Amino acid sequence: MQGSIRKSTWMVGVATAAAMSAAAAAFGGGDPEINLAPQPSEWAALAHLPDWSGVWTPTLKDQDARMKSNPIPWNAAAAAQIAKLVAAEKAGNPKGLFVNCLPESMPSWMLITHNAVEFLFTPGRVTLLGESDGNRLRRIYTDGRPHPADPDPTFHGHSIGHWEDKTLVVDTVGVLPETYIASSEAVGLPNNGDMHIVERIHLVGPDTLNDDLEISAPHVLTRTWKTKLILFRQRAKKYDIVEGVCLQGNYSEGKDAAGNAVFVPALQSEGGNTLPEDK
């Protein structure tokens, strides 16, 4: 879907015109675009949303099969670069796209992630909380705001959403051009700017959630690529999300001269892999 997305027939967290006018008056007739405190009715409306509670993990087998059956439509220049990355991976020398502890970012987070995610519903927002990338976080605004006219590019971009029945429709722009469109953790290219992502997130079973994606990246793709992420809900408590801090792997636990517990740089190989400590 290109351009602006359709306005939802109903939306959690949209302030009424009367409330906005009252707020403007209270602030001396200034800019009415402020974040109003949620009303009880908006909290109550959350009960009508679908149940996405719990911890969700990707179906890794599906990820591999999906990439083979529905490959990324790279343009000729991008395809030549991808062929070299594929050959390097097969030769046992993968590039490693995500070894620098920067976020996997959009859209790779919703394409090739191996980590758990959970969804938090609050008035005017859906928040995605993840396990890796320093406990990654993504905000989807459902309060009716538009995209900024000139958004500052970020790793996850600026996402606005609305509900169409039980489906959350999300429109994302303003993603940094350096973020990858990837088919694996070793094969992918930066989107190179002007990327636009539309998602339709919905339950397809009691514990199965689909994120249907449409990714437009005119500098590296020949057409809009339609694909999906399938998530499975884990009910067992052992699947609760744990803290994950990427850079922690670059350090060992040690003591300073005063006996304080500190992190000290770990020995690393030339390729960045941590080496075992000498005993």
Task: Explain what you see.
- With 279 residues, the protein is an alpha+beta fold.
- It has two domains: 55-239, Lipocalin (Beta Barrel); 245-279, no CATH class.
- The chain is built from five helices and 13 strands.
- It has helices spanning 17-26, 40-45, 60-69, 76-90, 109-112; strands spanning 55-58, 117-122, 125-130, 137-141, 158-164, 167-173, 180-182, 188-190, 196-205, 208-216, 225-234, 251-255, 261-265.
- The strands form three sheets. It has a nine-stranded mixed sheet with strand order 1-11-10-9-6-5-4-3-2.
Features:
two-stranded antiparallel sheet; 2 domains; 279 residues; single chain; Lipocalin; disordered N terminus
Strand order of the largest sheet: 1-11-10-9-6-5-4-3-2
Order of helices and strands: HHEHHHEEEEEEEEEEEE
CATH architecture of the largest domain: Beta Barrel
CATH topology of the largest domain: Lipocalin
Number of helices: 5
Hey, roughly how much beta strand do the residues contain? Answer: 25-35%
User: What is the terminal separation in angstroms?
Assistant: 58 Å
- β-strand number: 13
Helix content: 10-25%
Look at the structure and name the CATH superfamily of the largest domain.
Calycin beta-barrel core domain
Global outline: globular
Largest sheet: 9 strands, mixed
Rg (CA only):
22 Å
Short structural summary:
The protein is an alpha+beta fold. It has five helices and 13 strands. It folds into two domains: 55-239, Lipocalin (Beta Barrel), CATH 2.40.128.20; 245-279, no CATH class.
